[in-house]
Design a protein that fits this description.
197 residues, mainly alpha, Arc Repressor Mutant, subunit A, Tetracycline Repressor, domain 2, 2 domains, 9 helices, HTH_TetR, DNA binding, Tet_transcr_reg_TetR-rel_C_sf, Transcriptional regulator, TetR family
Length: 197
């Protein structure tokens, strides 16, 4: 295994271990020591790849959600009649993953602490902007192809999707009577697909 492969392997193991610990103990209760000890590395290995715990968590969240956005990109190459349905399916898959991994709760905890760390705050803003831009582009395509009736600005719709997604997950985190998957039909009602799913 060459140096680049070792480095990627280290990053991958740290990310998997860190996310599992964040989901189990929470962001503030998980230390860098916890992560490196559980992963079998030194603090030096951690700091060789990440400048802070906050930057690390942003990278972890980004990696966890990246597959969803790759799936969203693939929707654009499907038949029009499948596009909104696939959006709903992929969104439900992401919600289930986020629920199982406490993504919204961990993200909320990070948001609360980022004012103390301007670099981490900038990274988090950029992460949300990437999510917003990807969703806005897809929703704009839905509008142009006349797959949805809602003509609201696609960026506003994307912000709404992100808010509804995390809102349902956070409410479910507090109260299991709130079904986190209800965000899918709620958002679909908002965008108002031409063909019912």
């Amino acid at each position: 295994m060459n140096q680049k492969q070792k480095s990627l392997s280290t990053i991958s193991k740290l990310i998997d271990t860190g996310y599992r610990l964040f989901a189990l103990k929470g962001f503030t209760q998980t230390s860098i020591n916890d992560i490196v000890q559980e992963a079998g590395y030194s603090k030096g290995a951690f700091y060789a790849h990440f400048s802070s715990k906050e930057e690390f968590l942003i990278q972890v969240i980004s990696e966890r959600v990246q597959g969803y956005f790759k799936k969203l990109e693939s929707i654009l190459y499907k038949e029009e009649r499948e596009m909104v349905e696939l959006f709903a399916i992929y969104s439900a898959e992401l919600a289930t993953q986020a629920y199982k991994e406490s993504l919204s709760a961990i993200l909320f905890e990070l948001v609360v602490t980022t004012n103390q760390y301007p670099h981490a705050k900038k990274m988090l803003i950029d992460l949300f902007e990437n999510w917003r831009a990807s969703l806005a582009y897809l929703l704009q395509q839905f509008q142009q192809k006349k797959l949805i009736r809602n003509k609201m600005d696609a960026r506003i719709l994307a912000n709404t999707a992100i808010s509804v997604f995390h809102g349902f997950l956070l409410q479910n985190y507090l109260d299991e009577r709130v079904a986190y998957l209800d965000f899918v039909p709620a958002f679909l009602q908002l965008i108002d697909p031409i063909d019912s799913i």
